[in-house]
Design goal:
single chain, alpha+beta, 7 helices, 10 strands
Length: 218
């Protein structure tokens, strides 16, 4: 009787073992997201802001509660930024988020959406302002890898400023923010195409590894 029980158990282990192993080793689905660094309240009305309503300014993206507030922000972006992001957090980054080069001494600094950081040259200041959401994503998420693709993997068109998606830890540039819904349907295929067309990722020396993200709130 004992031998029969052992035999049955062995058969069950053989039958269930491979299936269980296959299930456990199945890769997890890729996370797809577009990070936002939103001011909680509209700097004009004081009401809760919406992620779909915003103005891009030299100091980054400022979210609002209604379209009429957008025009007021454009008239005085400095005042709006101060109201939207009253505290400035300093990021002691050692790598430029635009070029990937080391930050030299006396490098330019700028503030975007309540974060102060450095870039390696004056030319990078304007580039950072035009791509504030991408820059903040790279600075605030040290595991993010920018594929630096210049062609959208979905449309084949040239990528646009601030149009991007995170697939896992890979930052993929897009030709339009409207492409996000398409990425959700096929993230693996989107990532494969983006990697195939991406520029070679620059190797950064050990002493200039991703940003030290200690933040000092003023």
């Amino acid at each position: 009787m004992l031998r029969s029980i052992i035999s049955v158990t062995a058969v069950l282990m053989l039958a269930c073992g491979p299936a269980s192993y296959a299930q456990e080793s199945r890769p997890a689905p890729l996370a797809v997201s577009v990070p936002t660094y939103q001011n909680v309240n509209c700097p004009i009305m004081g009401k809760p802001s919406s992620t779909s309503l915003f103005v891009d300014t030299p100091k980054g993206r400022i979210y609002t509660c209604c379209p009429p507030c957008n025009a007021k922000i454009r008239k005085d972006p400095d005042f709006a930024h101060k109201a939207a992001y009253p505290k400035i957090a300093k990021i002691e980054n050692k790598v430029c988020p635009i070029t990937g080069n080391a930050i030299p001494a006396r490098s330019p600094t700028l503030v975007l959406q309540g974060y102060e950081f450095s870039v390696c040259s004056k030319e990078c200041v304007h580039a950072a302002q035009n791509n504030s959401q991408i820059v903040l994503t790279k600075l605030l998420n040290p595991e993010v890898r920018d594929l630096a693709n210049t062609t959208c993997p979905l449309t084949g068109k040239k990528v646009e400023n601030n149009a991007f998606v995170l697939i896992g830890n890979d930052l993929v540039h897009l030709s339009s923010t409207r492409c996000f819904e398409v990425v959700l349907r096929s993230p693996e295929e989107t990532l494969r195409k983006a990697k195939a067309s991406a520029a070679p990722i620059k190797n950064v020396e050990a002493d200039t590894k991703p940003a030290d993200l200690k933040q000092k709130t003023n």
